[in-house]
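To whoever is on call:

I kicked off a structure prediction for a single chain this morning and the downstream step that reads the tokens threw a length-mismatch warning. I double-checked the sequence; it's 435 residues and nothing unusual in it as far as I can see. Pasting both halves so you can look.
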Amino acid sequence: MKGAKFTRVLLIVVLLLMVASIGLGKTKLRVSSWAGADEAALDEAIIAEFMRLNPEYEVVFEPVTGGQYYQKILTDIGAGTPPDVILLDAEMIPSFVEGNYLTDLNPFISRLSRDGVSGTNLNEYFPVLVDIFRSGRSLYALPKDTSPIGIFYNKKVFDEAGISYPPAEGWTMEEFAETARLLSKDTDGDGKNDVWGFGFPSWVGVVVPILWASGGEVFSPDFLQVSGYLNSDLNVETYSFYMDLLSKGYAPTPQEASALGGAGSLFYTGKVGMIITGRWFNVSVKGQIARGADLEVGATTLPFASMDSKATVTYASGWAVPAAASDKTGAVKLAAWLSSAYAQTKRCLEGGLAISAIRSVAEEQGERDEMDSVFISMLEFARVPVGSQTKFYRPKFESTWAEAFDRINVGGATVKEAMDWAARTMDEYIEKGEY
């Protein structure tokens, strides 16, 4: 009996040691993002599936909220203890690349793709979204998802005005202007419009694509000069076109919009017929409808100078691997999984958070949601954001444009005067290497 008892005890000890050794044998990977509670829950489920399929890894998810994300990531990089996988806005790529903070994923992707690892087949992604994270011949992140810039319109406002909805495939600036005019009206008889055709585009993230949509550029091809580009005659004419619509009362002034709760609030309450923004606005629209708002919303493209030269921008974030990651192969495998069809199905189809970067998943999104279908179609002519190509975009170009707009909106400067000033100022920053 004693021998049998001893044998049982010995067996239990051996089993415990085996379990401990298995646990100790796992490779630990850390991943960080700025995800809020809802998105973090989806990411945790995606990570749990990665660990189920790859039991040799233990993944610790470290979301950072409250606007401190990049500060923490840079602090960790400086200390030599960064997470193994990090989420980056496309606009952060140039400065992170210059700092030698990131791993070139290409060599790892090539090997992992041959082994059929999920998320490593670059042909699955929309080409523009892979290009966003390239620098030279290197690839520094895999696209998580994306949001092109287009127009949402309130169908009820159009119906009340007896106006046909904009064509989903696109329209001209002249058609946009006429629609804005017809939607705008004075309902209380005070001589000023209190229903407006559109929300005025002042944010730089919208301004750049509307200039592109008219054939303009904002930087030189090498991104070392702004004069002659941002302040070109064509760009001055384009932005003056929108300022003219504002002066005619077809959009609330930025001050009016702010006092009335913002463009989004005006759109939901039927005071603004169209809003120029990113696909992310669809999340807010669905939230309003879920809370009982009487809303019917459609989507269309930016207005183009010509239907033969369509353009917009698509913004994206991507999963990157810091240069100091200890197990780069494992980290790239995890980054690829976080961008894989499985992950994007969870995040984009089930969560509805953005447009999937993977064509097959996005196509299914489009079949389920008419507005998403319009934004997905924009990826065929969307351009890489300026910010993913030059370190001078964020924050210098963003803040310079904000001041230029204030000079027009508050200071009374002409569009040309403000754009000339912005171009000169940016050239000075570039010459000094300030960003």
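Update from on-call: the warning came from a stale cache, not from the record. Cleared it. Sanity check on the structure: Residues 265 and 271 are 8 Å apart (CA to CA).
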